[in-house]
Amino acid sequence: MTDKYRSDFKILDQNLVYLDSAATSLKPKYVLDRMEEISGSYISTLSRGFGQNAENTEYLVNTTREKLASFLGCLGGSNSIIFTPNATSAINLVAYGYVDRVLGTDGSILVTNEEHHSNILPWMRLVAKSFDRSLKIADITKGNYLESVLSLIDDRVKLISLSLVGNVYGRINLEDIKIIIKEAHRRDILVFVDAAQAPLSVKIDIKDLDLDFLVISSHKMFAIGNTGVLYVSDRIINDMLPAIIGGGTVSDLKIDVTSLENSTLKVDINTMDKIVTCFDNYHRFEIGTQPVLDIISIGYAIDYIESIGVDKFHTINQENLAYLIQRLKQLDFVNLIEYPNSKEDRSLSSIISFNIKGIHCHDVGFLLGEKNICLRSGMQCASLLLNSLKVPGCLRASLGIYNTQDDIDSLVEELTNIHILFSKK
Ligand SMILES: Cc1ncc(COP(=O)(O)O)c(C=O)c1O
């Protein structure tokens, strides 16, 4: 166990035990310093101006897109990388811009019951548009991830959407997903990977995975803001419609206002395509003024990650997680929520979910917060999983490279105090 990287995170100079990295990571000094340097000096909006500031901004955003393409191992290079307001927006963009058409009247989408609400609700709404469409939900709670997904694939399935790392179990599903992608593509089924929780646990290699869509969430990997990063395969990107449209996405808009009748423009979805010419690749999806500082910070976040290496993150987190799980298991008043067989497959990331017997998770979360021990309590946007497990909410501790054994000991000590406090009632 190492505290080598702790000093990279200035906020930890305060008395803070931060165990909520799956919600958002702390931001390293390296990223914050770079952002301070550039934000006060030479930034403008994107693609709107001339001069040194505009050129610098363009350069920094392009460089970030290229760094992301290389970080994710993109086929098709940086043209396939789309910045979105967050990961959830990216999933909606794909749902309405592409999957809606592919589904036809009676197609199905396949997910598992561990997906985050953001990887369920957009698909639910899409299937709700037509009576014969359906959402298939694989139950993975018996510890049979691969079989439960494969067994639900049939000719009506048009898209499989899976999280690379689950946000409650924290299991890395990579090896299973590789097999599922092969089977899906053999049957012309699209695959979307929600990698929001993955970049600090898994070396993502889109070339190797041969994916159709993948999303990550920049604020969970040291960037400021909360930009989503969406990869869309170059087989698809220019067939995907911009489900949300506006300034910055079109190269031509052919409306002759002088020829309108009664000042009225009559337009239907087919003529719209004739009137509006969208840019190609990512340009057609990045609407309005872009959050350039947030985007540029992703480039610096990648510099920081690569200076350490994803493997190193994974090793440190696994070591800390093993210690945390071991300590929690010593507490007979704690119920762990673990993916069955996780001990054997050693594929945990940095997350462990649990409850204290007889105490509501919000009470525990609140009391820990009073001691400046931060973790997440509630449904974790994972109602399907928690409902399947008949658990009305839980606590989730999630680690970062800045955590130490002392953090874990503080958590365990405080959980014990809370248990004692409630036992006296
Ligand atoms: C697995 C997973 N998918 C999607 C999301 C949504 O990400 P965002 O908040 O960037 O929309 C989260 C956020 O916690 C998540 O954990």
Q: How would you briefly describe this protein structure?
A:
This protein is of the alpha/beta class.
SSE diagram, text form:
Elements: E1 17-18, H1 29-39, H2 52-71, E2 81-84, H3 87-103, E3 108-112, H4 121-127, E4 134-138, H5 145-150, E5 157-163, H6 174-186, E6 190-194, H7 206-209, E7 213-217, E8 228-232, E9 250-253, H8 269-275, E10 276-278, H9 292-308, H10 310-329, E11 334-337, H11 342-345, E12 351-356, H12 361-370, E13 373-374, E14 376-378, H13 383-388, E15 394-398, H14 405-423
Parallel strand pairs: 1-13, 3-4, 3-5, 5-6, 6-7
Antiparallel strand pairs: 2-8, 7-8, 9-10, 11-12, 12-15, 14-15
Helix pairs in contact: 1-9, 2-9, 3-4, 10-14
Bound molecules: pyridoxal-5'-phosphate (PLP).
The site of pyridoxal-5'-phosphate (PLP) has 14 residues, from helix 3.
Please, how many domains?
3
Helix/strand/pairing category: alpha/beta
Uncertain segments are none
Alpha-carbon distance between the two ends:
38 Å
Query: How many β strands by DSSP?
Result: 15
Helices and strands, in N-to-C order?
A: EHHEHEHEHEHEHEEEHEHHEHEHEEHEH
Per the CATH scheme, the topology name of the largest domain is Aspartate Aminotransferase, domain 2
What are the bound molecules? pyridoxal-5'-phosphate
Residue share in helices?
25-40%
* SS summary, helix count: 14
Assembly annotation: single chain
- What is the spatial order of strands in the main beta sheet? 2-8-7-6-5-3-4
Q: Biggest β-sheet, characterized? A: 7 strands, mixed
